[in-house]
Amino acid sequence: VLGRFPQVGAVFTEASLIDGYGKVFGETKVAQYVRRQKGETVAFNFKELFPVILRSGNFLLCSGAMVRTEIYKTEIRFWDADRFSTSCDLDVWLRILEHHQIALILQKLMRTRTTQTQASFQELKRNTQRADMFLVLDYYLEKYRSQGIISDWDIAVYEALQRMDTARRAMNLYLTARNQDARALLRSISTWNLIKFAFYSKRGLLTFLLI
Predict the structure, then answer these.
(1) pLDDT in tens, 85-117
(2) Within 13 Å and on the Cβ side, how many CA atoms surround 179?
(3) What separation in angstroms does the CA of 19 have from each of 12, 26, 113, 130, 171?
(4) CA 175 to CA 70: how far, in whole Å?
(5) For 12-27, b where at least 16 C-beta lie within 10 A, e where not — what string?
(6) Dihedral through CA 143, CA 149, CA 151, CA 156, nearest 10?
(7) What is the pairing mode between strands 24-27 and 66-67?
(8) What residues have CB less than 8 Å from 28, skipping those under 6 apart?
(9) In angstroms, rounded to a whole number, what is the distance separating the alpha carbons of residues 159 and 156?
(10) Measured between alpha carbons, how far apart are the two ends of the chain, in Å?
(11) Parallel/antiparallel/unpaired status of strands 41-44 and 66-67
(12) Closest Cα to residue 96, out of 115, 79, 76?
């Protein structure tokens, strides 16, 4: 793909999800997020792809990234972990996307392991702070909000994504017996907005049920 399309700076693919024993239990849903058919290879610019990431979260797998060497050397050069912590990879992909297209191969060309013993999984279970991904998305949202590439609907769905994260945090607080903190966190969510987006997607319904 990089050889055929000089405007593409990085390539990502779909993946099968495997457990600790190597058994496939699911797959990524990139094709669904970008509303394309499985099997296609599609290139997107920032205007096209960033609103999708804003609505769906980060679906660009770091383990499957292929990036032109010269882009790493001349344009990226560092991973901004001080600002974006564990989501500094998403910042790198968006920095690339600002100047180049990103291609998505909508085929399962890799496997990625997700187990309950992984440090990232355990951290997600324990963490009661806002997910690091939102540090990146807030930064780019502020940067591009006035440029007409992000709709009111994009913003509304992004807010729903954050409510899902709030529900996760509250659940973790309950699990660690911090019930008062959990209730205070849940009270910060608008009831009307919660009901409005409850049936927009499975994520919205799950958020509604959790809360």
Answers:
(1) 999 999 999 999 999 999 999 999 999 987 554
(2) 1
(3) 21, 9, 6, 26, 24
(4) 47
(5) bbbbeebeeeeeeeee
(6) -40
(7) unpaired
(8) 14, 15, 17, 59, 61, 108, 112
(9) 5
(10) 44
(11) unpaired
(12) 76
Q: Is 1 in contact with 103 (CB distance < 8 Å)?
A: yes
> What are phi and psi for residue 143, nearest 5 degrees?
-70, -35
- Give the whole-angstrom CA distance, residue 135 versus residue 210: 24
Rounded to two decimals, the pTM is 0.86
| C-alpha closest to that of 10 among 64, 84, 74 | 64
State the Cα–Cα distance between residues 156 and 175, nearest whole angstrom: 29
**Using one digit for the tens of pLDDT, what is the confidence trace for 137-188?**
999 999 999 999 999 999 988 988 888 888 888 888 888 888 998 888 888 7
Residue 170 CA neighbour count, 13 Å, CB half: 20
125 Cβ contact list (under 8 Å, min separation 6) = 172
152-175 vs 202-210: helix crossing angle, rounded to 10: 40
Rounded to whole angstroms, what are the CA distances from 162 to 14, 61, 125, 141?
A: 24, 20, 16, 14
135: its two tokens? 């540090």
